[in-house]
Fold these 2 entries.
Entry 1:
Amino acid sequence: MVGCGPSDELQQVDDRPNIIFIMSDDHAYQAVSAYGHGLNNTPNIDRLAKEGALFTRASVTNSICAPSRAVILTGMHSFKNGKVDNIQPFNWDQENFAKALQRVGYNTALIGKIHLNGLPQGFDYSNVLPGQGSYYNPDFIENGETKQIPGYVTTVTTDLALDWLENGRDEDKPFLLMYHQKAPHRTWMPEEKYFTLFDDRTFEPPANFYDDYEGRPAAANHEMGIYEHMDIVYDLKMLDKEGELKTKYREYFQGRYDRMDDEQKAAWDAYYDPIIKEFKAANLAGKELAHWKFNRYIKDYLRSIQSVDDGVGQLLDFLEANGLDENTIVVYTSDQGFYLGEHGWFDKRFMYEESFRTPLLIRYPKEVKAGAKLDQLVQNLDIAPTFLDYAGIDIPADMQGESFRAVVSGETEMFRDHAYYTYYEYPAEHSVMRHYGIRTDQYKLIHFYHDLDYWELYDLEEDPTEMDNVYGKPGYAIVQAALHKKLEEVRLAYGDSDELNEGHLNRYLEYQRSRGR
Ligand code: SGN
Ligand code: CA
C-alpha cells in the first residue's frame, strides 16, 4: 500500500501490478500464430502465449470498433453504456476502469487509436488518433491538441508508448498504459520494410470462400465480399499513374497516398507499380480474379500485422530491460475479430465465429501459468472488472462483466456459461442487419430483426464454420427450446429488451437523418 507522505517513516513500496493493455484494430485470431492457423508468424504476440495464457474462445459483445472500446472501458454492454454503434456519440462522463484506477493512485495513459469522440477521461496523459487515424504521417491529439507526426502510424504509436514509459510516467506509481494500434484496419497499408513479405507465397482462400448463404438471408444481404465489394484501387492499391482504373473509391485512396512524403511515395511506387502493371496486363476475371483479390488483400493485411507484432516485442523488451516484467500484467487483444475470406468476406459485425471471437492473451508471471490454453467464454466485457480485481478495487455492481483473474491463475475453471451479443449498425456500410444472440458451450442462437425476423441456430461442434442453420430442423427441437429460454433469461438479467432495440433504432435513424444520411 502507498505510504501516507514524506514524513511517514514506514513508507512502503507500492507493489500493485502495472497494466499494459495492448489492443489492435481488426486483428483476426486466425492471424496470430499462437492460434495455430499457419497464415503468418507473430513471434512477439506469441511470447505472451508462451509465457502466459491464451483464450481460445474469447469474444466481443458487439463486433465493431467504437462500441467494443466503450464496452471495454465501462464493463457494460452497449445497451447500458449507450455507445451502440460507430456513428452516434460516446459519453465520456460515465464511469470507466481507467478513472477507477486513477482514483486509487495509478498513473494512466492512453496512446493510439480509441475512436471515441471527445477528450478521453480517466487518463493523466492521452495521445490519440482522431477517429480512424491515418497510416502515414498521422495526426495525433496530445491531451487535446492536434499535431501531425511524421512516420508510419504503428511505429509512431509504439515510439509514443515507449517514450511515455521511459520519460512520461510517474515512477512512484503503478501505471496503466493503454497502447492501441490502428493496424491492421482497412485499408491495410503496410510499413515499407514489410512490402515484400509473403511475395513468395500464394494463399489459398478458406474452404467456404464461395459460400452461397443458403438458409442465411442476412448473410446473403452482406456488402463485404472480397470478390464483389472490394475496390481494386482503394482496398487493393491499384492506383495506376495513368488513371485508367476508375473505381468508386479511387479518390479516397488517392488522399491516403497523398499523405506520404516523396521518399515514402517512391518506396511505395517501387513496390506497387510493377504489381499494377502486371494486373492491368493480365485481364483477370472470375475465379482467377477472386483469388488474385484474396491474395492482394491478405498479404497487405498480414504485412500490417507484422509491424504491430514488432511493437509488442519492443514493449516486452522494455519491461524486461527495466525490471518491470514480473510485476506488469500485459494483455493483448483486438477490438474484434475479422474475416480473412471465410464466407467470402472481409470486415466483421456478424455474430459468426470469425468476427465474434477475438484474440486474447495475458501474461503476468506472478499469477498466470505459462503456456495455459483456456476455453472459458470470456468477453471484452470482462476486461474492466478483471483489471479492477488485479488493482484491488471493488467491482461496481453495475459493471456487467466478470473478473477472469481466478480463471487465469488456475484457481477455478468455472466461468459464465454463455456469451451474449448485440449488433445495431444498420442500415450502414457493409449492410449487416441488426441482430442479437447467445453462444453457449456448443451452440449459437441468433435473431436478426428490424427488416427481417429470422432465427439461426448453429451446432458449433458439428458445424464450426456455421454453414448449416439448423433452426427448426428435426432433431434440434429440445436444444432450440432450451436456447430460447436461456436467451430470454440472459436478456432479462442484463436488462436488454425489444423495447430498447426499438429505441436504439429510432435514435439511430433520427441521428442519421440529422446528418443528412
Ligand atoms: C470504416 C471502414 C469499414 C469498417 C468501418 C468500421 N471503411 O468505415 O470497412 O467496417 O470503418 O470499422 S473505410 O473505407 O473507412 O476503411 S471499425 O473497426 O472502426 O469499427
Ligand atoms: Ca475494429
Note: The chain has a mean pLDDT of 97.
Entry 2:
Amino acid sequence: MKRNLFFLLLLFFMFGATAIQAQQVIAHRGFWKTDGSAQNSITSLMKADSIQVYGSEVDIWLSSDGVPVVNHDADVTLDGEKLIIQDTPFATLRKVRLANGEPLPTAEEYLDAFEKCKHIKLIVEFKSHRAKEREDLLAEKIINMVRERGLEERVEYIAFGINFVQQARKLAPNAPVYYLNGDLSPKVLDTMKLSGFDYHYNVVYKKPDWVKEAHALGQKVNVWTVNKPEDIQKIIDLKVDFITTDEPLRVKEMLQAQ
Ligand code: MG
C-alpha cells in the first residue's frame, strides 16, 4: 500500500515537473505585430495578455526630470527633431505619439494597465543610462511602483548593464533577474545571485553548453529575439526555458506542435 502511494507520488512529481519545465513565450516589446498595436504601447501589453503567453517585455528609461517612461530607443522623434530621452523633460516626451497614436506611456501607466492583465508576467528591461545615479534612481522608482501595487510576484527584471542587475537583485531580492549582455558564464551569474541569462540566440549557438550549465546551477535560460522558424526550432531543441520573440503566436504554435 505504502509502496503504491510512493509510486503515485513519484508519478505526480514527474508530471508536475514536466509541466513546470515547459518552454514559455515572451512577447518582445509586447505583442505589437497585430492590428492597432505598436512596440511598447499599452495596447501591445494588453494584446500579449490576450494571447496568453508567459510574459510581455518592456523597455524603461528615466526622463531628465526623473519620470520613468516606456520606449525602446535612447531617443524619440518629435516634430522631426531627435530628442535623447535621458536629457529631455517628461512634459516634452509626453507629446510623442507611438505608431498606433498612443502617447508615449509612463511606467506608472504601464503598470496600472498591467495590474488588469490576467495571464502574463511583465519583463522589465532597464535601459543603460550614462550615470550610475540615474540608473539607481530608475531601479528604485520602478521597484517601489511594483511593490506599491503588490505586483512583486508578477514582475521580472532584465538588463544589459551590470549595475542594473545588481540594483534589481538588491532592491527586489525575490524577483527573477536576468542578464542580457551575453558575456558572462552561468558560473559567474551564480556568484552574482542572478536567476540566469537572457542572451541573443547567436551567443547560445556558440555556447550551447551554457544552457546545461545554467540548469545544473538551478538557473533559467531565456533567449532573444527569436523570430525565424528555423531559429525558433533550433532554440526549442536547445531546451531553453523562455523564448523572447516578435512572433509570439508563431512560437506558441511551434511549441504546441512539438
Ligand atoms: Mg528590450
Note: Confidence is low (pLDDT under 50) at residues 16-20.
